[in-house]
Amino acid sequence: MKVDVAPSCQLSCPVCIHGSLSRDQKKSLPASMTIETFRTLVDQVKGHSHVMSLYNLGEPLMNRDLVEMIRYASAANINTYVTSNFSFSLSDERLRELATSGLTAILVAVDGISSETFGKHRIRGRWDLVDSNLRRFAALAGKSGPRLILQYICFDHNEHEWPKIESFCKEMGIDAPLVIDGATTPWVEDFQPRHTMPRKGGKLPLCGWPYFSALVSPDGLLFGCCHYRMEENYLALDRRRAMGDIRTSTVKNIYRSEPYRLARSLASKPTAPEQKGHFCESCPVLNDGPHLPRETFSPDN
């Protein structure tokens, strides 16, 4: 389960939706998930889900109940992991709580390991804070704490540093590096809707999301994936296309419902049935037609 515990973020990275939001749009973002909603979700999926990813497009540490959420999931024998930019003034006590919460793994995402490279993509981020938090968290977590991974996103401006990543992680007490190529196209453009022309060829199913995972919004709505319809889910709450609501139903019943049956049909059969109004309608993973004009949303419309 991918759980959007905190939709907001203090950074403005160019490829992320937060990099293009106006001040008014940032203010209109959904509130963080409550501990009550999270407990409802855990109670419904314990014994059936192996892991919860406690973040989506926001910064999970912005949810004040994050540690309590992790502890509740851990008590239900569910693994948890988060990805954080770690660019906060975090006290030793806050880091200790996170390190001893039962968290399985934490990925700290950086685009540089120096003040010269870090802030060029992580707009508004501060390397001095990240560096301090990494060192103290690694010491507090030790061998019994969560697995600490440095996610190094490689661009032209920082590729000269990647040969140093392994030694940097060893010196810092980080368990492992994860070096990936950075994207320059905003995610909302990558997943822009297409005209409905079923994609043919390739291995089936075209998408695995309807078979093994789902995204749960801060207010308990369940969506098909975390890639598609980002702007609607964040900026046009009245136009979201939820597959169900865990507050009035259960994940088990939602997964067996007609919207999910259709999602699996769309992913496994090149001949698409009626998609109108469905979450997966015009998804570029399933359809091969030209891009539809992009619709933008604001708090006023």
Automatic annotation (TrEMBL):
**TM segment ranges:** none
Q: Name one Pfam family in it.
A: SPASM
Keyword check for Nucleotide-binding? no
Per the record, the coiled-coil ranges are none
Q: Is Cytoplasm set as a keyword in this record?
A: no
From which domain of life does this come? Bacteria
Cofactor(s) this protein requires? [4Fe-4S] cluster
Q: Where is the 4Fe4S-binding SPASM domain?
A: 207-284
Q: What is this protein called?
A: Radical SAM protein
Q: Which organism is it from?
A: Sphingobium phenoxybenzoativorans
